[in-house]
From TrEMBL:
GO MF entries: magnesium ion binding
Domain of life: Bacteria
InterPro entries xref list: Endonuclease_RusA-like, RusA-like_sf
An annotated GO BP: DNA recombination
Protein's recorded name: RusA family crossover junction endodeoxyribonuclease
Region feature (Disordered): 1-57
Length: 209
């Protein structure tokens, strides 16, 4: 996977009648690498997330933000037997709680219930072997862009889904589309975008698959 589908970004303005919200949009070519700052896209007047789509059929970004730090993978649950009882333990429980605490400032007023598309970019710090010297900031010509070591992208993705479930969206079943990638970057962290999943029914040329 070389790039993400083109995301829709834009700003919200009132219509002439002042009764509805419309969107002026601009497209970017790919999911941009994160910066040290975080952003969250929402309706600044009401504090609520944008509507599912406006009269023009544009699909706005709900929320986009960066959680700094080394991405973590979801660990498998463990089962311990005490007497006649089996007890399931989630080794990632504390890590998921800490991650959610960092993300809470970007949460919607209430969990989203519409069909959602989630895009995740996991950014890892480069090892020293990627640079030309011990104190050099210049990368070697063959330094990779993609992170191909462990943890697996599937387990990284599951960690995010478990952490945000019930707070950012009502249930995992709301996630209609999910895309993820692992890269090396100067700012380690997880770049998260949550937006309404585009609906082919808004197109006049729609055909059933």
């Amino acid at each position: 996977m070389n790039s993400f589908a083109e995301p829709v970004t834009g700003s919200y303005t009132k219509s002439p009648k002042g009764t509805t919200t419309s969107m002026s949009s601009a497209k970017t070519n790919r999911f941009t690498a994160p910066s040290a700052s975080t952003t969250s896209s929402r309706n600044t007047k009401t504090g609520s997330p944008p509507k599912t789509h406006d009269e023009t059929g544009e699909w706005p970004v709900h929320y986009e933000f960066l959680i700094p730090g080394t991405p973590q993978a979801l660990k498998r649950h463990r089962t311990y037997r005490f007497g006649n009882k089996n007890i399931n333990v989630d080794p990632s429980s504390a890590a998921k709680e800490n991650f959610l605490l960092q993300a809470l400032e970007h949460r919607p007023p209430e969990p989203l219930r519409e069909a959602l598309a989630v895009t995740l970019q996991f950014c890892f710090a480069r090892p020293k072997s990627h640079f030309r010297g011990k104190s050099s900031t210049r990368l070697k010509a063959d330094a990779p862009h993609w992170h191909t070591g462990r943890p697996d992208v599937d387990n990284l993705q599951k960690f995010i889904m478990d952490s945000l479930n019930g707070t950012f969206w009502h249930d995992d079943s709301c996630i209609a589309s999910i895309k993820a990638e692992k890269i090396y970057h100067a700012v380690p962290g997880i770049h998260i975008r949550i937006e309404a999943a585009s609906d082919p029914s808004v197109s006049s040329n729609r055909t059933e698959p």
